[in-house]
Amino acid sequence: MRMLDVSGAVLRDVDLSGASIDGAEINELSVNGVEVAPLIEQELVRRQPARALRRSSDPADLREAWRQIDEAWSRTLLADVTPQQLAAEVEGPPWMEGKPVSWSITGSRSATW
Fold first, then answer.
1. What are the tens digits of pLDDT across the range 73-110?
2. Quick one: how far is CA 39 from the chain centroid?
3. Can you give the pLDDT at residue 112?
4. Bridge partners for 34 per DSSP
């Protein structure tokens, strides 16, 4: 199911074995009387420490969070890229024909005019 709003629902005697919930708002979600949102947030921070910095009001913390996220994203992008792919020349869009274009692995481009 997608885009399902079950806020305020009370489920009794429900079998959720093997269920998967992704991208959910889980504020005040209780399972057997236990508030689970803080437990899930704690586990997500353990997996990705930059999450702890994202709510900070300190600019230095936010910069560090961005640096960590950017580093992780770069590793993700480069995970399956071969050196040959990195070195390959890419044809630019037709309107740039004849102008030198360099493409980075993130898809941004710079042109020399």
1. 888 877 777 777 766 666 666 666 666 655 555 544 44
2. 20
3. 46
4. 31
Neighbours of 88 (CB within 10 A): 9
Q: Is the dihedral of CA 105, 110, 112, 113 positive or negative?
A: positive
Give Cα separations from 54 to 28, 68, 71, 87 (angstroms): 21, 11, 15, 35
DSSP class of residue 107 equals S
Structure tokens that stand for 35 in this block: 């508030």
Whole-angstrom distance, CA of residue 76 vs CA of residue 96 = 29
Are the beta carbons of 56 and 75 closer than 8 angstroms? no
Token code pair at residue 107: 């898809």
- How many other C-beta atoms lie within 10 A of the C-beta of residue 69? 15
Report domain extents, the chain.
24-80, 82-113
Amino acid symbol at 54: R
